[in-house]
Amino acid sequence: MKSISDGSDGLKKPSLFQQLLPYVFAIGILVWVFTGMKASVVDERHILENGWLKLSHERILPETVQLKNTDGTTIYCGAEENSTDCNGKPDYFYRTDGNYVSISRNPAGKIISGASVSVEYTHKIGAGDLLKLLHSVDLSIFLPFMLLNVLAFFLADVFSFGTAYRRFNVPGMSWRELMMVRGGPYLVQIGLAPLAEILFPLYMLRVKKVPISHTISSNVWTFVVDLAAILSFITPAVIYNVFFETLIPDIGLTWVLLCAVFWLLFTGNIIFWRSGMGKRMAGISDTSSPDGGWASGKRGFIKAFSLAGIPDYASVYVIRLFLWASFIIANYAAVRAVGMTPAPALALIAIPLVVMSIFMPIGVGGYGGPQLIAWFLFVKVGGAGQAEQAIMYSFLFSTAFLAGRAVIGTILFRPFWRRCFMH
User: Fold this and answer.
1) Of 49, 69, 384, 402, which is most buried with the most CB atoms under 10 A?
2) CB 320 within 8 A of CB 153
3) DSSP state of 209
4) What is the chain's mean pLDDT, rounded?
C-alpha cells in the first residue's frame, strides 16, 4: 500500500515554495497562539482610598479592567486617565505604568473612600508565567493522566468521526488516512477552532469528492452523539445535586429540565428517522441499496441522521463516553494538583463545560474564556476553592492539552496540507 505522505501516490511534485508553505503556516499559527495567550483573572479585591493602586499582574490589557462592588451587583464605569469617557463622570480612572496598570477612585464618582471593590481584567501570559505555574503545582499525578487524555482525544476523534465518514461518506477510507484527516488540522484548531471545522469538509470535497453537505452532516451527527456522552456525566450529577445533596445551590430544577429536554430530543431524533415520515423527509427511495437510496448531494445535511442505525449511535456513543471519562479524570487530576477538592457532583458538572469552552471562539488556544468559566463554576457557584486556584487549574489543563494537540498536528499537518491543497 502506498504511503499518503511519501510522494509515491502519483501527485505532481510540488515546488520548493509549496513544500515550505505548510511549515510557514504552522509556525505562524503556533507563534500567534503563544503570543496571544490570555487568562481572565477575576475577584482580585482591593480597598480604594485616595491615590493610585497598582494591580497585581503584569501585561494587563487596560481596556479589559472592570470594577464591581464585592457582591457583583454594581458595575462601575471606568475611564483612562484624563479622558472624558463615562459621559465625563467616571467612577474610577486607570493608567499604564510600565508593564502594570494602576487604578484610582474618582472622588466625584460612586465609589466612596475605603470601599472594597472586585477587579476583573485580562492579562497576557508570557513564558515566565508558564514556568511559575509548573513550579507551583504537583505534576506527578497530572502529567501521566494528561498524556493518556491527549492520546484518548486523538484516538476517539479518529474513530468516532472516522466511523461516521466510513459509514456515510467514503466506505473504503483507511484508518491511516483518517488519522491524517482528523489530526492534521489540530494546528489550526488550537488557534482558530472555527477554521479547523472548515478544513474537514474541504478535504473530503477536494480529495474524496464528497459533497460538503454530506461531510457536515457526518460532523454534526457526531457532535450530537458527543453531546449525549457529555450529558451522561452531567445529568446524574445534576439529579444528585437537586434531589439528594445540594452542593451547588444555583443548580436547581431548571438544569434537570434542560437535561430532560435534551434526552427527549435525542431519543425522538433516533425514532423519527426510523419512521416512515422521517424516511420520506430524507428522500430515501430504496432502503435496500448500500447507501440507503441516497442520490449524491440530495438533502445532504440530514444524510447521516437519516441513515444512522442503533449500532452506529451505540458505537460512536461508547467511543465519546470513553473520551469524556478521560477528560474528567485528567481535569480532576489538574484540580487536585492546584489544591482544590471539589465534590464529585460539582466536578462532573463543571469539568465538561470547561473543556467544551476550549473549542469555542472565546479565547486563543484555550486561554481566556475557559479560565473565566472555571472560576465561575468552581469558585463563584461551587465554592470549591480560591479564584487563583481555579484559574491555575484551567490554565494548567489548557497548556498541556494545547501542547499535546500541537505535537500531533505538527506531525500530520504537512501530509494533510499536501493532499488537500496540492492534489
Assistant:
1) 402
2) no
3) -
4) 80
Spatial separation of the C-alpha atoms in residues 240 and 393, rounded to whole Å? 25
Closest CA to 259 of 248, 250, 267, 249: 267
DSSP string, 323-361: HHHHHHHHHHHHHHHTT----HHHHHHHHHHHHHHHTSS
Task: Write phi, then psi, for 58 (nearest 5 degrees).
Answer: -85, 165
Only one residue has cell 485580562, namely 122
In this prediction, residue 224 has a pLDDT band, given cuts at 50, 70 and 90, of very high
Helix (H, G, I), strand (E, B) or coil at 91: coil
Residue 59, SS3? coil
Backbone angles phi, psi at 48, to 5 degrees: -95, 125
3-state helix, strand, coil in the chain (%, to 5): 60, 10, 30
In eight-state DSSP terms, residue 2 is: -
Report the b/e string of 195-225 with b at 16+ CB within 10 A: ebbebbbebbbebbebbbbbbbbbbebbebb
Question: How many helical (H) and strand (E) elements, i.e. helices and strands, does the chain have?
Answer: 14, 9
Q: Which of 200, 263, 230 has the alpha carbon at shortest distance from 350? A: 230
CA-CA distance, 374 to 380, in Å (whole number)? 9
Residues 306 and 292 sit within 8 Å (Cβ to Cβ): yes
For residue 97, pLDDT beyond 50: yes
Return the exposure string of 101-139: e unless at least 16 CB atoms fall within 10 Å of the residue's CB, then b: bbbbbbeebebeeebebbbbbbbbbeeebeeebeeebeb
Q: Using alpha carbons only, give the angle 338, 342, 344 rounded to the nearest 5 degrees.
A: 130
Least confident segment among 208-212, 268-272, 288-292, 385-389: 288-292
Question: Which residue in this structure is represented by grid cell 505538527?
Answer: 410
CA distance 315 to 322: 11
- Residue 216: what are its φ and ψ, rounded to 5°? -60, -40
For the chain, give the longest Cα–Cα distance.
Answer: 81
